Amino acid sequence: MKTLDDLDVDGKRVLVRVDFNVPLDGTGTADAVGGRITDDTRIRGALPTLRELRQKGARQLVLVSHLGRPKGAPDPQYSLAPVAQRLAELLGTDVAFGDDADGEIVLLENVRFDAGETRNDPELAKRLAARADVYVNDAFGAAHRAHASTEGVAHLLPHAAGRLLQREVETLEGILADPKRPFVAVVGGAKVTDKIGVLERFLEVADQVLIGGAMAFPFLRAQGHEVGDSLCADEDVQAAQGLLPNDKLLLPVDLVLGRAFDPDTETQALDGVDVPAGWMGLDVGPRTAQLYGEAIAGAGTVCWNGPMGAFELAPFAAGTKAVAEAVAATDATTVVGGGDSVAAVVQFGLADRVDHVSTGGGASLELIEGKKLPGVEALK
Fold first, then answer.
1. Is the same domain home to 332 and 188?
2. What's the distance, Cα to Cα, between the start and end of the chain in Å?
3. Is residue 59 domain-resident?
4. Same structural domain for residues 148 and 247?
5. Are 289 and 323 in contact (CB under 8 A)?
6. Which residues are marked as active site?
7. This prediction's pTM
8. Are residues 147 and 99 in the same domain?
9. Cis peptide leading into 70, omega within 30 of 0?
10. What is the DSSP letter of 179?
11. Closest CA to 322 of 287, 356, 355
C-alpha cells in the first residue's frame, strides 16, 4: 500500500478523502451549527495527515467526506457545515466550506448528497479528480465501501494512504498475523450473525474469545439455558451452535437483569445465566467481569470489539466499564474497535490508555474477517 512517503505533494493540489462522519446531537440546521458535534474523535484523527501534507508544501487541500445516510440529495441535517467550523478550530486556520469554495483548505459538502457516490459513478470520480493533482485516502471508516470518493477516484490520480488509514491497516493486520501471546479477543454487541466472520477468525488466531452483550444469549440458549426476554433470534442461535463446543470461548457466568430496556427499570443480579421469564439480560455480572478482567490482565494482545451490555443505561454499565478498565490497565498491546466500544472507552475517560482506538466500525470488522477493502486495494 502506497503511503505519504511515496507521494510528492509539493506545490500540488491534494484531494483528501477523510472520515468526518461524526455524531451530531440532532439540533439546529446547517445555518445553526453551534453544539451539534458530540464527538470530534474522527476529525482529530485526520489532523496528522492534514498537517503533514501542509508541511510538505501542498498548495491546496480539498477534503471530501460523507456524513450519515442522506438519500443522494441535499439534506440540511446532514450538512458538513459544523464539521468545517470544528476543523478550523482544531487546525487553527481558515477552512473554506462548500463545493464552490476556494482557499488553502476546502471542505466540500457531504459527498453523499450526490447519488453517484454510493454507485461509484465514474463521472463523479472524474469531477472529484479534476479538483486535484494527487489523491490521499485517510478514511479508514469508509475503506470497505467501493464508492466514487474512496475507490473510483484512486484510479484517476497518483495516490497514497494517509497516516490514519496506514496505521489502522498496519495495526489490525499486525495483531492478526503476529500477535503477542496470549491473544485475547473480547467480542460483544447485539447479533452473532453480524459478527460470525469475526468470531470465526478470532477462534482461529486468538487464544481466548470472551463473549458479552446480547451476543452471549444465543450461545447460552444453544447450550440449553433459558434466556427469558433477552435479545436472542433463532438465526443467531443457529450461528452460535455452529461455533460450539470450543474451548477458546468464554461465556458469562452471571448477569444483571432488567424488566425493560430502560434506565429506570426494575433490576436484579442473577448468580447464574438462566434468565427467568419476564426479564432480560442487559449486562454481565460481577463474577464475569472479574473473570474477563483476569484474562485481559494476563494477555499479550487484546482486541476488543463490542460492549458487554447496555452501557448507555447507568444500571447496566458496570460490565463494560470493568472490561474497559482492564483493557486500560493491562501491559498487553491493546486495540479497541467498533463504534460502541470506542464510545465506551471515551465515556469512561480511558481512550488515551489504549494503544490503538480504531476509527472504523465495519471496515475494521471486515479487515479482521480477512476481506479485502476496496479503498485499501485501490492504493496498492
1. yes
2. 4
3. yes
4. no
5. yes
6. 42, 191, 339, 362
7. 0.86
8. yes
9. no
10. P
11. 287
